[in-house]
Every structure is written in structure tokens, then in C-alpha cells.
What does this fold into?
Amino acid sequence: MPRSAFHKTQGGALLLESMIAILLFSLGVLALVGMQAMAVASVSEAKYRTDASFLANQLIGQIWVDRDNMASYDYDGGSANDALKSWLNQVNEALPGTDGHPPQIAVDGEQVTVTIFWQSPEDAAKDPQPDPHQYSVTTTITCC
It folds into this structure.
């Protein structure tokens, strides 16, 4: 078979193969971009959970030091005592979406439960909005 006849039967095969390779490469890049976006969202959620844990433990430490006034830390929204105001400001600065979902602090004898709510900006933009995330810790504070 002459050389020119061979080239005519194979015309465009290399172009087709390279177009398929570019398509597969593009799909792979798009998948990597999607995974990166999911990783960023997961890191943000982990940061919110870590901040909520830190803030709850910080308040428990404050109550432990001021255990004589433990009942005054009971809080279910509304006005807060002076000891709680700065902590509530820290919660509002550290976590998004706490305006509509204030923290709750339940003091029942020696048992203290701190529940912190937050709603990420992505969740706030959804319609309907999902329930807020929450972190809750319960501890017993005893005397001496």
C-alpha cells in the first residue's frame, strides 16, 4: 500500500484522540476544584465547632472560679448579667449567625449545661434554612 493511502485512512485520528485527552483532563481539573471547595467548607465548619468548644469550656472555667454565684449564670436569652456580657460578645464575634440563636446556659444544682448555636453563612443563604448547628457540654461543678 502506498504511503499516501495510509495517511488518508488515518486522517483525524490523532486530533480525535487529543480532543478526548483534553476532555478527560478538563473533567479531572473540575473534579479537583470541586474537592477543594468541599475541603474549604469542611475546614470552616471544623473551625466553628472548635471555637464553640473553646467558648463553652471558657465559660465553664469562669463558672468554676465563681461557683458561689453559679445560679446567676443561668441564661436562656434576654438580658444577661455583667459576668456573661463579655462572654456573649465573644460568642457573637467568633461564630456566625448567633444573633437569632443565642447560647443557652442551664444551671441545675451542681450541673451546668452550656449550649452554643451558630449558623454558617452558606446555611443562612439556603431556602428553607436548616436548623442551626449546636455544641453542648454538660459538667458537674462541686464545691472544694
Observations:
- DSSP finds four helices and three strands in the chain.
- Residues 13-65 form the longest helix (53 residues).
- Residues 3-140 form one domain.
